[in-house]
């Protein structure tokens, strides 16, 4: 069945300003993604200065991803209805203010609150940026190029965050991992005012408040339930929050089927190709947010690297992504996205399996570097087509909601992945400790278990792609002059 929606007002831009707008929007995506990992390298120093518990340490990462993912759908609809440029600018200002608050935090609670506020404003900023990109490059080869650039920047952002976090922690202070955002925010606001044209959905639009409440509480309860699993999957509070999260999400789906203007039009997620892309995006989020956190711990705690060397140690993955992505972009129109989406996760999984063989007395060059190179190749193949697939065939009216769903999948996947990996890590460490292993050996066993779990997730992502992402390359990557119609 075809979903028909009113056309959105499209921005009017010159050819050159469109590409400069892409630079600004890609920079925005870089900031949003790197802030998910930039504090990873700084966490050991921040934990010592602020007296964070291990649980609070995890929530410095989880608070950002959870608030981001849970509020993205609402943020997407606000962008559609209120105006994408306006939402972008307000999101930028709020993100900058929250970053300043976090950089000046004097306690673990303040830092966690600041990270949650960052995530909330990022939930307004990110879908507005991606929706602006969608309506600025509505179709054709230029759209594929724009999305390839945008996806590559997003993919490299997590690793860039690790490197930048290492530089700032080593030569300045961990607080600059948050304060540095003020420079990006200034560039984004000036560039947005000058280069980005306003666009929004036409017609009379009403917010789906019941849907917003049920999906936000449902996702929050689900992620919190997974975070409690570290203390045991059979605990009553773990089961209770997981069950409550599932129930609220079921209610959300029922609400969306009945309201006239849903927060998430179900036609966006019932399309088979887009559903597959969203699921893969969730798995990729778990790897980029969850697995990379444990890599930074291994580099600093077990291998004993200082913050800057630890950040630089993750750079090979970024370099490989930047090298492989242009090659993949050229091949994409010829072979189509499906082979990339099947093979890419398998290559990345092989890298993580290799990484899971780390030992406490191993060397970086032998045990970590080869894994990062292979991981970078696999992720590059996924990043290039992923954003485009997630938004293929979406009508301009739904651009914000679809963009929000794509981002939400990655952030919620990262939140759940981090919680699951933490539970697996804790169980492995406990088992090693009870058997008499040393502290570093126990930590290494925990990291290894987390990497192996992430590899299994990527294999599942490859299977999902093989089953759901089907069709001709011309259908999955439309080359015409007008956007494809939504098919549900």
From TrEMBL:
The chain crosses the membrane at residues 19-39, 59-76, 88-106, 112-135, 147-168, 174-197, 209-226, 238-255, 276-297, 309-328, 340-358, 364-386, 407-427, 447-469. InterPro entries: EmrB-like, MFS, MFS_dom, MFS_trans_sf, Sugar_transporter_CS. The keyword DNA damage does not apply. It is a multi-pass membrane protein. It comes from the Bacteria. Keywords: Cell membrane, Membrane, Transmembrane, Transmembrane helix, Transport. Residues 21-473 form the Major facilitator superfamily (MFS) profile domain. It is found in: Cell membrane. It holds the Pfam family MFS_1. PANTHER family: BLR6921 PROTEIN, MAJOR FACILITATOR SUPERFAMILY MULTIDRUG TRANSPORTER MFSC. NCBIfam families: efflux_EmrB. This is MFS transporter. It comes from Herbiconiux moechotypicola. The lineage of its organism: Bacteria, Bacillati, Actinomycetota, Actinomycetes, Micrococcales.
């Amino acid at each position: 069945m075809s979903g028909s929606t009113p056309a959105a007002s499209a921005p009017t831009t010159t050819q050159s300003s469109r590409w400069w707008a892409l630079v600004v929007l890609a920079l925005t995506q870089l900031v949003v993604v790197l802030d998910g990992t930039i504090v990873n390298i700084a966490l050991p120093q921040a934990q010592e200065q602020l007296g964070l518990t291990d649980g609070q340490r995890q929530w410095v990462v989880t608070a950002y991803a959870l608030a981001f993912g849970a509020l993205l759908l609402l943020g997407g609809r606000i962008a559609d209805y209120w105006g994408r440029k306006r939402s972008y600018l307000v999101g930028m200002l709020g993100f900058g203010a929250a970053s300043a608050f976090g950089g000046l935090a004097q306690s673990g609670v303040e830092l966690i609150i600041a990270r949650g506020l960052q995530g909330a404003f990022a939930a307004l900023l990110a879908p507005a940026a991606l929706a602006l990109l969608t309506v600025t490059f509505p179709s054709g080869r230029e759209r594929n190029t724009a999305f390839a650039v945008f996806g590559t920047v997003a993919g490299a952002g997590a690793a860039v965050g690790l490197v930048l976090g290492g530089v700032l922690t080593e030569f300045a202070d961990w607080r600059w991992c948050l304060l540095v955002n003020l420079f990006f925010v200034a560039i984004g606001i000036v560039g947005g005012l000058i280069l980005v044209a306003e666009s929004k959905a036409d017609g009379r639009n009403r917010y789906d408040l019941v849907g917003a409440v049920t999906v936000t509480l449902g996702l929050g309860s689900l992620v919190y339930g997974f975070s409690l699993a570290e203390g045991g999957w059979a605990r009553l509070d773990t089961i209770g929050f997981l069950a409550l999260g599932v129930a609220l999400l079921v209610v959300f789906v029922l609400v969306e089927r009945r309201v006239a203007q849903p927060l998430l039009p179900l036609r966006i997620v019932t399309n088979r190709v887009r559903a597959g892309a969203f699921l893969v995006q969730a798995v990729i989020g778990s790897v980029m947010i969850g697995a990379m956190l444990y890599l930074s711990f291994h580099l600093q705690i077990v291998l004993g690297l200082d913050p800057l060397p630890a950040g630089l140690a993750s750079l090979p993955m970024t370099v490989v992504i930047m090298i492989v992505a242009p090659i993949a972009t050229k091949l994409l129109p010829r072979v189509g996205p499906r082979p990339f989406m099947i093979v890419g996760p398998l290559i990345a999984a092989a890298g993580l399996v290799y990484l899971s063989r780390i030992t406490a007395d191993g060397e970086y060059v032998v045990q970590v570097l080869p894994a990062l190179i292979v991981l970078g190749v696999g992720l590059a193949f996924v990043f290039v087509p992923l954003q485009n697939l997630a938004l293929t065939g979406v009508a301009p009216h739904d651009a914000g909601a679809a963009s929000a769903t794509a981002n939400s999948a990655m952030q919620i996947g990262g939140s759940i992945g981090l919680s699951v990996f933490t539970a697996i890590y804790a169980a492995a460490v406990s088992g090693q400790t009870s058997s008499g292993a040393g502290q570093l050996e126990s930590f290494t066993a925990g990291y290894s278990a987390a990497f192996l779990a992430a590899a299994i997730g990527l294999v599942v992502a490859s299977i999902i792609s093989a089953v759901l992402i089907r069709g001709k390359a011309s259908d999955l990557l439309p080359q015409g002059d007008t956007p494809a119609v939504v098919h549900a």
